[in-house]
Amino acid sequence: MQAHSRESCVSSAASRRGIGRRALLLAGLALPALTLPALAQRSGLLTLRATFGERGPEIGEELIWRIYSVRGTDAQLVQQSAEIRPNFSLPPGEYAVHASHGLATAIRTVTVTEIGTSAVIPVNAGALVVSGHIGGPERPMPPARQSLRLFIPTANNSEGRLVTSVLRPGSVLRLPEGTYHLVSTYSGTNSVVRSDVKVETGKVTEAAVNHRAATMTLKLVRAVGGVALAGTQWTIETPGGDIVAEAVGAFPNVDIAEGAYTVTARHNDREYKGQMKVEGGVNRDFEIIVE
């Protein structure tokens, strides 16, 4: 009875030890199975192109694309491209597509699927090119002398919102369709021309600005056609008394807008006045005779 009892105890202990080893073995074998390889992320291809408006031709230059993921009211930039017809590899879902053509933009929401998605984004964009003349088309203004500003008119204000003040004559500015207010200044003068220009989708608007201005050579002389007196100080004023130009010298050149002006010449502490009429595009000498 005692021997039997001891065998049972030994068998039972061994059994317990065996179970423990099997449990450890099974646990050890199971550990690798808990680390599963990550599933490959699914993606779809989004192919894009842009057109001038809903029915216009395809836009073939100067495009910037930005793709935003949309989560409720939040949007986050995920990809961008400057290609004309870009392809974006994206996880399936909803995205906001932003297309820029110069200053013109368009936004559309697209849904990307695993089988791929293509979209055409219409952009209501045109272009503006500005040039300048002095007195007529036969006298083009040097581009460096023409300063341009472009505005979007608002209620009761033609210069409501500035679009750009760095537009260069002869350059192409891409703009949203609409009406704009153009201000052209003949640099260094009081000649300012204001006009409204209309930009249409898919078209280039060419605006030629004609400045009615001229270059006047000022002279203070003792007789008509005489030698100009050196060291003369000059002031040119409008009929209302606004000073539009000042100069110093025997015969300074002054660029000035068409109109009538009062000219004052100061020499040796004396003042001499004259009335000057300026005609657009007609450059000439203006003399004041010392009396």
Q: What share of the residues lie within helices?
A: 10-25%
Question: What is the CATH homology-level superfamily of the largest domain?
Answer: Carboxypeptidase-like, regulatory domain
**Shape verdict:** rod-shaped
How many helices in DSSP terms?
1
* Amount of beta strand: over 45%
The low-confidence parts are: 1-39
What is the CATH domain class of the largest domain? Mainly Beta
Identify the strand order in the major beta sheet. Answer: 3-2-5-6
* Overall structural domain count: 3
Would you tell me which CATH topology of the largest domain applies?
Immunoglobulin-like
The rounded Rg comes to 40 Å
Structural class: mainly beta
Average pLDDT confidence is 87
Distance, first to last CA: 157 Å
Q: Indicate the CATH architecture of the largest domain.
A: Sandwich
The helix/strand order is HEEEEEEEEEEEEEEEEEEEEE
Largest sheet: 4 strands, antiparallel
Number of strands: 21
Describe this structure in words.
It contains 1 helix and 21 strands. The chain is rod-shaped and about 95 Å long. The chain has one helix at 2-34, and strands at residues 44-52, 64-71, 74-81, 87-90, 93-101, 104-112, 117-123, 125-134, 146-154, 157-167, 173-176, 178-186, 192-199, 204-211, 213-221, 233-237, 243-248, 253-257, 259-267, 270-278, 284-289. The longest helix is centred in the N-terminal third of the chain and has 33 residues, at 2-34. The strands form 6 sheets. Strands 3-2-5-6 form a 4-stranded antiparallel β-sheet, with no helix packed on it. The protein has a 4-stranded antiparallel β-sheet with strand order 10-9-12-13, with no helix packed on it. With 291 residues, it is mainly β. The protein folds into 3 domains: 44-123, Sandwich (Immunoglobulin-like); 125-211, Carboxypeptidase-like, regulatory domain (Immunoglobulin-like, Sandwich), CATH 2.60.40; 213-289, Immunoglobulin-like. The model is unreliable at 1-39 (pLDDT under 50).
